[in-house]
Write a structure and sequence with these properties.
CATH architecture of one domain: Alpha-Beta Horseshoe
Radius of gyration: 26 Å
Strand content: 15-25%
Strand order of the largest sheet: 1-2-3-4-5-6-7-9-11-12-13-14-15-16
InterPro entries: F-box-like_dom_sf
Protein name: F-box domain-containing protein
Organism: Roridomyces roridus
Number of helices: 14
Distance between the termini: 41 Å
Length: 428
């Protein structure tokens, strides 16, 4: 009850009459409501509903930010009904439930969400499907995060979204749903997709005669910390996904599989990526590529980069694995640095590069790193060339002092931004 009543604000309001008037009369101080209705279900007190209305009324007409964790009792239903009567003020809404729900119904909000901008729903699948249709009319909705993939997602106003975050597809059938949804997205929209392999459901990448076109500007594919998933199954899942799409407006591709302690590197299908890059004309519009980290060799990385003439922001990572089967693998090597070094009359890989980051084990010659950086600085870019090295503490060594002195001089002239520091990516 103290949490609901914003007891801290009430305490401040008691300092003096002036502060009381200020606190109680400033609507924006009461616009955040955070409820755990599971607690209400344990020992429901009708006074809670009265207090909830008082708090909501203190917010006046100011837009509301709501965070609601639902229980499975009658109190959840009654609490949601009160919140629903204020739906015309909802702006940012997060609804969570971690078990079967029989009271999670919100018919009163349908068509009454004029201010809603950001929506997050994390509810058990079938219940989530039942909640989503109530949000299908929301003229300002820009960001949606959902855990379960259900057909009801198609009822949301997908065409107007700027960001869509999916949960975990449980197999190829749900990946079909993802693909269909992506074809409805337009404008500067970003898509986050958690993707892992499906051991028994996929045996080969789908032969898609006509990949579906999505106008997404940004695509984030995140691997789960799931070391129990075989590399073969995960690789097939990635191949299957890349084969489904044509992305003629994509500017950023981010493949991420990091975790706090262990991480499961995402697979990388060079052949499928090259096919996707060709049919999507990535050479003209893909600006940012982040591989963080993936199963990729130096040769595969060079193939991946070979036709990305517009790429100006690149992040890669050496790989350090706890599973001995996967092993450590350095991709920032002498050879890669030589391919990235711009030579007058000959060019180089990724000619438009202006920002380079690498989580590295420092297994390269410092002279070649210096040549690479100096060659890019000499190209007289419109802004300073940026290099960030994040090193593995297990492989740390001192960088050449003469090279660092040169870099410092370039930095003082505004031609280079260089940093080298420990990387949390390699921390166990």
């Amino acid at each position: 009850m103290k949490r609901l009543a914003n007891v801290e604000l009430l305490g401040i309001s008691r300092v003096c009459p002036r502060w009381h008037q200020l606190i109680m009369g400033t609507s924006c101080l009461w616009n955040c409501v955070d409820l755990d209705l599971r607690v209400w279900d344990d020992e429901f007190d009708p006074q809670l509903l009265t207090l909830l209305r008082v708090v909501l009324d203190h917010g006046g007409n100011f837009p509301l930010d709501l965070g609601v964790v639902c229980g499975d009792g009658e109190a959840t239903s009654r609490g949601l009904n009160v919140l629903a009567t204020y739906s015309c003020r909802w702006r940012n809404v997060s609804i969570s439930a971690y078990g079967p729900q029989k009271h999670l119904r919100l018919p009163a909000i349908e068509g009454n969400l004029p201010l809603l901008e950001n929506l997050a729903i994390e509810v058990a699948g079938l219940d989530e499907a039942g909640v989503i249709p109530f949000f299908q009319v929301a003229p300002r909705l820009a960001t949606v995060r959902v855990r379960a993939l259900t057909s009801n997602i198609s009822k949301l106003p997908l065409e107007q979204l700027k960001l869509l975050v999916f949960g975990d597809p449980e197999g190829p059938k749900e990946l079909d749903d993802v693909t269909r949804i992506m074809t409805r997205l337009s404008g500067e929209v970003g898509i986050y997709l958690h993707l892992v392999g499906w051991e028994e459901q996929i045996t080969a990448p789908r032969a898609e005669a006509s990949p579906q076109v999505s106008n997404a500007f940004e695509l984030f594919i995140r691997g789960r910390n799931a070391s129990q998933v075989s590399t073969e199954a995960a690789d097939l899942a990635m191949q299957d996904f890349l084969a489904r799409l044509t992305l003629p407006r994509l500017r950023t591709l981010y493949v991420d599989s990091t975790g706090r302690q262990l991480y499961f590197p995402m697979p990388w299908s060079t052949d499928q990526f090259l096919a996707l890059a060709h049919r999507s004309s990535f050479s003209t519009h893909l600006r940012t590529l982040i591989l963080f980290p993936v199963f990729i060799t130096e040769a595969e990385l060079l193939q991946t980069l070979s036709s990305l003439d517009s790429l100006d922001d690149l992040t890669i990572s050496d790989r350090k694995m706890i599973n001995a089967e996967w092993g450590d693998l350095a991709v920032l090597t002498d050879s890669l640095l030589q391919h990235l070094t711009w030579t007058p009359g000959l060019g180089c890989v990724v000619p438009a590069l202006r920002c380079f980051r690498c989580h590295t084990q420092l297994k390269f010659d410092d002279g070649l790193l210096r040549d690479f950086v100096l060659s890019r600085v000499r190209r007289e870019l419109a802004s300073a060339f940026e290099v960030e090295l994040l090193w593995d503490q297990d492989h740390h060594r001192e960088l050449d002092s003469g090279m660092l002195a040169q870099f410092e001089e370039l930095s003082s002239r505004g031609e280079l931004i260089f940093s080298a520091k420990p990387s949390a990516l390699f921390q166990d």
